[in-house]
Design a protein that fits this description.
340 residues; eight-stranded parallel beta sheet; two-stranded antiparallel ribbon; alpha/beta; Type Iii Antifreeze Protein Isoform Hplc 12; TIM Barrel
Length: 340
């Protein structure tokens, strides 16, 4: 398994403020993330005028009574110049820029801006024209699967591969689309079901509170982790409460890097760091009491004590019945030279 790709999801946590978006880029880079991801959309192309807000959007303290989802999203749009500025800012901070397109016009803009990786959000997994278009770009694709059945994932994969994507270009993220997602709804094993069923690279897009679940996902085999973050959970806006703050993002990245080091190659053998402890930790065969030359060794004559650089206790049965060829005091570490 290669290095886990960590995507710090800024999303719409910039609140429409380009300076805040720039801060989020800097914070994601300082935390050690590989990508910082935004959301690219034209609200009028995404929702109708009467589309209701999601429950979590209404729960935001800044949510206005009677405000439509369209009105909410219009305040969170990033235009072309904003994107150019953010891409430039990512290069300045040595972190990769990524954004998710939610409509065809936005997808065209991201392509024109030279995107090398395309993320399909969970809500677009049934958007046939969007899937077809992305498949034809010939670029790596990350597909999120929140709210999806296995059949819907299969259908999306079929569309992508029919229209130009290859399976090795495809990564599938398990996801639970709720903000924040209850731990009991996460079902991390579903990520393994996706991997084993479709034979694809898998990862996890996390909406739980805290860092435990994405770290656990890496231990299970996730190759990509996506996690929302914010400058402060106290900021107004729909996604802040389900996001990590900068120190937590840093801690998550650190934990993931430690876990990926610990996963290893699956071969069970002594490591270099532990081999030096074998003598100190294991035992070898010693005499339980003083014995005279010519004594025929019995099990009661033997005691297993540290250090472990003598005859292994696993060879005790080979010692029993042999004749001692010298007078030896109690606690002597036996060697084969003592026996005949």
């Amino acid at each position: 398994m290669g290095k886990v790709i960590i995507i710090a999801e800024a999303g719409v946590n910039h609140n429409g403020d380009i300076k805040l978006a720039e801060d989020l880029i800097r914070l994601a880079a300082e935390a050690g993330a590989d990508f910082v991801k935004f959301q690219t959309f034209k609200a009028s192309k995404l929702v109708t005028e009467n589309a209701p807000k999601a429950e979590y959007q209404n729960a935001d303290s800044s949510s206005k009574q009677g405000e439509s989802q369209l009105e909410l999203l219009q305040k969170l749009e990033l235009n072309r110049n904003d994107h150019l500025n953010l891409i430039k800012h990512c290069k300045l901070h040595n972190i990769k820029f990524l954004s998710t397109a939610f409509d065809m016009e936005s997808l065209d803009m991201l392509r024109e801006l030279g995107m090398e990786l395309y993320k399909i959000p969970s809500g677009e997994i049934t958007n046939l024209p969007l899937l077809r278009k992305i498949a034809g770009f010939g670029k790596p694709i990350i597909l999120s699967t929140g709210m999806s059945t296995m059949s819907e994932i299969s259908d999306a994969i079929k569309v992508l591969t029919t229209y130009g994507a290859t399976m090795d270009q495809l990564s599938i993220l398990h996801c639970t689309t709720e903000y924040p997602a209850p731990f009991e709804d996460v079902n991390l094993k579903a990520m393994l079901t996706i991997r084993d069923t479709f034979g694809v690279k898998v990862g996890y897009s996390d909406h739980t509170q805290g860092i435990e679940i994405p770290v656990a996902a890496v231990a299970l085999g996730a190759q990509i982790i996506e996690k929302h973050f914010t400058k402060s959970r106290l900021l107004p806006g729909p996604d802040h409460k389900a996001s990590l703050e900068p120190a937590e993002l840093t801690e998550m990245v650190k934990a993931i890097r430690n876990v990926e080091k610990a996963i290893g190659d699956g071969i069970k053998e002594p490591t270099a760091s532990e081999s030096k402890n074998i003598t100190a930790a294991r035992k070898s065969i010693h005499l339980a009491h003083q014995l005279d030359e010519g004594h025929v060794m019995k099990s009661d004559d033997l005691i297993m004590k540290r250090p472990g650089n003598g005859i292994s206790p696993m060879l005790m049965d080979e010692v029993i019945g042999k004749i001692l060829n010298a007078d030896l005091p109690a606690n002597t570490q036996l060697t084969w030279d003592h026996l005949s």
